[in-house]
Amino acid sequence: MEPVLIVLVVLVVVAFIALIKTIQVIPQASAAIVERFGRYTRTLNAGLNIVVPFIDRVRNRIDLREQVVPFPPQPVITQDNLVVNIDTVIYYQVTDPRAATYEVASYIQAIEQLTVTTLRNIIGSMDLESTLTSREVINAGLRGVLDEATGKWGIRVNRVELKAIEPPTSIQDSMEKQMRADRDKRAAILTAEGQRQAQILKAEGEKQADVLKAEGEAQAAVLRADGEAAAIRTVFEAIHDGDADQKLLAYQYLQTLPELAKGDSNKLWIIPSEVGDALKGLGGAFGGLTGNGGGANGGALAAPTVPQAPPAATQVPLDPAAGPRPVDVEKGSARPRVDPAREYRKIDPE
């Protein structure tokens, strides 16, 4: 009984192992290559799959999702003979598991080497400045070459990115100095432009202020002249409407005379000849009022004595011994002859 039991146990174990090898469960977004006696038979997709145990063999499982592979920095020589280190990142996806398994031994290593050689070809035709400023051009050229070469491997390159472009240390120092000089230059230019614009605006503001001030003064002068003209016109009309006689005008004339003597700088006051006429007019007015009227006793009142008018034009020199200077009278007007070398006293009309 013991040998039979051993055989039964062996058969059960073999059957269990065969069952395990028969049922293959493939995860989502994955694929498996099946070989029968070392030859490709089929590709297992995601889900439950049945294979022949001990005859079919699952060689490897391939991830069909998009993969990201960073490559270490690679030294590349530019057109101007400068060595730069470039880090790259490849985004790829397996589209044909069979080709990725049998067309290339290791597609990851193949993509890395192809990336390095293609990158050297592209960077070798560009100088350092173009390399630093033309990442999109480098990415597009690198992706086109990789996509064309990896198509037969069942690989699709979705994107190629340059992580970093590191020039030599000496070049970095020179670039920093150049950038600092450019920034200082732009700052100086902007400062000068700002000062220039400020001066222009200030000059324009002062110009507009002067123009507005001049316009205001002109308008004020015009309004002042209009006001004075209106006042003179009103006074003239009032005089003519009131029919002022000679006596009123003479009185107003005498009231104006003290204004002529005002001021500390007046060394000489020349009395015009019209003062005498004014005084005679006032004397005649007072004489007309009192010459024919009756007094308290019914008799005639004597006319008041009218002060004699001063000469038409009298000049009083500072030297009493010199005496008054002569006066020239032409056509009823007095024209005093004034010696500029002599100082004269000012006569107070009051």
Describe this structure in words.
The protein is an alpha+beta fold and 350 residues long. Helices cover 49% and strands 21% of the residues. It has helices at residues 2-22, 97-102, 107-124, 128-133, 135-150, 169-242, 246-260, 274-290; strands at residues 23-26, 30-36, 39-44, 47-50, 56-63, 67-77, 83-94, 155-166, 327-330, 333-336. Strands 3-2-5 form a three-stranded antiparallel beta sheet. Strands 6-7-8 form a three-stranded antiparallel beta sheet. Strand 2 and strand 3 form a beta hairpin. Helix 3 (107-124) packs across helix 5 and helix 7 crosses helix 8. The longest helix has 74 residues, at 169-242. The protein is rod-shaped and about 180 Å long.
Give me the secondary-structure topology.
Elements: H1 2-22, E1 23-26, E2 30-36, E3 39-44, E4 47-50, E5 56-63, E6 67-77, E7 83-94, H2 97-102, H3 107-124, H4 128-133, H5 135-150, E8 155-166, H6 169-242, H7 246-260, H8 274-290, E9 327-330, E10 333-336
Antiparallel strand pairs: 1-4, 2-3, 2-5, 6-7, 7-8, 9-10
Distance between the termini: 173 Å
List segments where confidence is low: pLDDT < 50 over at least 5 consecutive residues: 289-339, 344-350
The beta-strand count equals 10
Radius of gyration: 63 Å
Along the chain, the helix and strand elements come as HEEEEEEEHHHHEHHHEE
Structural class: alpha+beta
Numbering strands along the chain, what is their spatial order in the largest sheet? 3-2-5
Portion in beta strands:
15-25%
Number of helices: 8
Q: What is the makeup of the main sheet?
A: 3 strands, antiparallel
Overall body shape: rod-shaped
Question: What's the mean pLDDT score?
Answer: 76
Amount of helix: 40-55%
